[in-house]
Amino acid sequence: MHVPESKLRRLMKVLQCKQDTFPQVYLGLPLSNVKLNLQAFAPLIAKVDRQLSGWKALLLNHAGRLVLINSVLDGVPAHLKSALLLPAGTIEALDKRRRAFLWSGQATATGAQCLVAWDKVCLPKQDGGLGVKQISVQNACLLLKLLHRLHHPGDSSWAAWVRQRVDLHTLQGEVEGAHWDGLRTLLPAYLQLTSVSVKCGATTAF
Questions:
Q1: CA distance readout (Å), 56 to 16, 44, 103, 156
Q2: How confident is the model at residue 126 (pLDDT cuts 50, 70, 90)?
Q3: What is the superkingdom listed in this entry's lineage (predicted)?
Q4: Does 145 lie in the same domain as 91?
C-alpha cells in the first residue's frame, strides 16, 4: 500500500511475492482498506451452505433442527462476529438459511411453512420463543468485548497499540476505517453497560 511503482517491483523481486488487491483473507478474516461489501462475506455464506447440505434435515424433527442451529450453525460465523460488524445483508442471508432449515429442512421455505414469525423464534424460551440467537445481538456483544479490552488492556499488544493512537472515549484518532466506524456505533451501549472508577482521572472523560 502507498508504494511507488519503481520500489514495488523491487520489493516483489526481493520478497518473491505478487501484487494483489483488497479484500484479502488474513487469519480467516476479510481484510480491506475500504468498507467491505457483501461479496466479501460470500465464503461465510458458502460455509454455512456446506454445513446444511451435509445434514439429513428431512429425517429430523423441528426440535432436532433447532439444536443444530444453536449448537453448530451459530458457531460457524463466531470468529467473524467477534472481529467485524456484519452487514445487514449478510445477517439477512444467514437468517434466511436458518429459517428455511428450521421449518422445511431444505434450502428455502415458504411463508406457509413458517409456523412462527422469526422475531418470535428468536425470543428466549422463558418469553415464549424458541431461543434461537439473534446474529446481530451476538455480533454486537462480541464486539463490545473489544471495547472492554481497550479500557482494560492487560497484556494485550493490540489494546496498548490502539490506546496510543485514539481517544478511548470517542475512538477518534489516527486509526480510521469502516471497522472503527462500527465500533463507534457501540460506544453508547458500552457506556450504559459499564461504570467509571475515577481514581487519578487520567483515563476518565468529564
A1: 46, 21, 14, 43
A2: very high
A3: Eukaryota
A4: no
Select from 84, 108, 133 the last residue of a domain: 133
- pLDDT, tens digit (0-9, with 9 covering 90-100), for 66-95: 888 888 888 888 889 999 999 999 999 999
Question: What confidence tens digit (pLDDT) does each residue in 27-64 have?
Answer: 888 888 788 888 889 888 888 888 887 777 777 888 88
| Last residue in a domain, options 112, 133, 154 | 133
Task: Give the length of the chain.
Answer: 206
Residues 6+ apart with CB under 8 A from 205: 169
Section 124-137 average pLDDT: 91
The domain in which residue 186 lies consists of 139-191
Closest by Cα among 72, 88, 190, 192 to 133: 72
151 and 120 within one domain: no
Longest dimension (CA), the chain: 65
Contact present, 38 and 88 (Cβ < 8 Å)? no
Element (H, E) at 5: helix 5-15
State whether the Cα torsion 76-78-83-89 is positive or negative.
positive
Q: What is the pTM of this model?
A: 0.81
Same domain for 106 and 61?
A: yes
| CA 12 to mean position of chain CA atoms | 33
